Amino acid sequence: MKKILTILLIITLALATAFITPWLMKHPGTISIEFAGYLIQLKVITASILIIVAIIIFWLVVYIIRFPKKAKTLFTSNRSRKSFAKGLLALSEGKWQAAEKLLLRSAKNSPTPELSYMAAARAAVAQNNVNDAFGYLDQAENNTDNPLTVDLTRCELWVKMGDNDKAINLLHRILKSYPNNPKALHLMAQASQNAEQWQQLREVLPKAKKLGIINEDKVLKLNQYSIEQQLNFAENENQLQATWESLSKQEKLQYNYIQAYAENGLKLGMYQQVASLTEKTLTKEFSDPLLKIWAQLTLDSDEKKKTAEKWLKKNPENAELLKILGKLSIEHKLWGKAQAYLQHSLEINPNAETYKLMAHYFDSIGEPENALEAYRQAENPTNQLMLIDSSSPSSE
Fold first, then answer.
1. 300-396 under CATH 3.30.1330.60, yes or no
2. 3-class secondary structure for the chain?
3. Contact in structure between 138 and 132 (CB atoms under 8 Å)
4. Is-contact 278 293, C-beta < 8 A?
5. φ, ψ (nearest 5 deg) of residue 33
6. Any idea where the domains of the chain sit in the sequence?
């Protein structure tokens, strides 16, 4: 309406100028108007004052005509702001139903109805009225020229409701257009963690750290946890190897990652890859948990025995290594070595597993009484094995 009035005024002034200009040129200093048989002559100053007065009167009339509507708009706008403020207060106090009603009421005459609808959506979600909530968001989108805020609210509600995959799909589209949006990055990190999409989480963390969205300490912990989860729960060789190759040189030296890779690689039958990594690591730094994983690998028995014997030279008092060598000696029927290794292991660290291997050794050489005694000792391990017959075959 305001634009139309402005255009009409400009046209009127243009026509008046075109009509008056010839008179001014013919009668300088005076304006002559002939209308309905009458001739009216006015000085320019007088005519100018009359025109100004006429314009003022015109605008007064327009103002008076529009005043009731303006007054009503102002009244409803104030009432809308009050309803919006009360709605937000109710929302913060957990009065969901009251908040929803107040916020919807405020949207009707608000200059920013999208804010009212988005807040109402939060109140609806709190009452588990999911359909209503997303209906309000649709209305918010229809009342704004910038749908980004509405889309972020959708994602936030999806994350709260556990619909993380929906949130991630929309966040991917948002981040293509707004790659540094802090809200989108924070939601992507949260949704990826909830959905256990660890690779996605690892990809978003560096930018979240750079922009200060997530502090450095938390980024470090989340990244470490993500890598461990990927290594521990890779479902096939390709997944596990891809995760391992994605690590930096420094990360590949971290023991927790090496152990996770080795444990899952053992389950997936990646014996050669695991053997290569564990043997390289154990040569530099010995570790019983990693040694136990290596011992379970299906490898060439002779090569395995040679490798274990090399390690024994540097770790002669390692009970776990002695136990492994005892088992390997039994497999090779090196009875004297088997007994020596197992006996030494028991002296250092008596445990049920080693006693059971000792029992297996006695069964193999035909000493059932001693085998039975070893089985008894397995139930209550001590470093003293009470042999019935101390004789044993010579070492091969």
1. no
2. CHHHHHHHHHHHHHHHHHHHHHHHHHCCCEEEEEECCEEEEEEHHHHHHHHHHHHHHHHHHHHHHHHHHHHHHHHHHHHHHHHHHHHHHHHHCCCHHHHHHHHHHHHCCCCCHHHHHHHHHHHHHHCCCHHHHHHHHHHHHHCCCCCHHHHHHHHHHHHHHCCHHHHHHHHHHHHHHCCCCHHHHHHHHHHHHHCCCHHHHHHHHHHHHHCCCCCHHHHHHHHHHHHHHHHHHCCCHHHHHHHHHCCCCCHHHCHHHHHHHHHHHHHCCCHHHHHHHHHHHHHHCCCHHHHHHHHHCCCCHHHHHHHHHHHHHHCCCCHHHHHHHHHHHHHCCCHHHHHHHHHHHHHHCCCHHHHHHHHHHHHHCCCHHHHHHHHHHHHCCCCCCCCCCCCCCCCC
3. no
4. yes
5. -125, 120
6. 234-286, 300-396
The position carrying tokens 């303006």 is: 70
pLDDT of residue 392: 46
Residue 72 is predicted with a pLDDT of 47
**Which residue carries 């968001």 as its tokens?**
137
> 218: which 2 tokens?
């938390």
Q: What is the number of other CB atoms lying within 10 angstroms of the CB of residue 326? A: 25
pTM of the predicted protein model = 0.72
- Calpha distance 291→278 (Å, rounded): 8
Within a 10 A sphere around the Cβ of 253, how many other Cβ atoms?
Answer: 12
User: What does the pLDDT read at residue 34?
Assistant: 58
Q: Which two tokens stand for residue 23?
A: 């008179």
Instruction: Using the structure block, give the residue that is written with the tokens 């250092």.
Output: 348
pLDDT of residue 69: 55
The residue type at 178: Y
Predicted confidence (pLDDT) per residue in 342-379, tens digit: 999 999 999 999 999 999 999 999 999 999 999 998 88
How much is the pLDDT for 85? 81
* pLDDT tens-place string over residues 159-213: 998 999 999 999 999 999 999 999 999 999 999 999 999 999 999 999 999 999 9
Cα 227 to its chain centre, rounded Å, is 14
Q: Which amino acid is at 281?
A: T
Which regions of the chain are under pLDDT 70? 1-51, 53-54, 58-80, 383-396
Query: What are the pLDDT digits (tens) for 87-100?
Result: 888 888 889 888 88
Question: So what's the pLDDT on residue 9?
Answer: 61
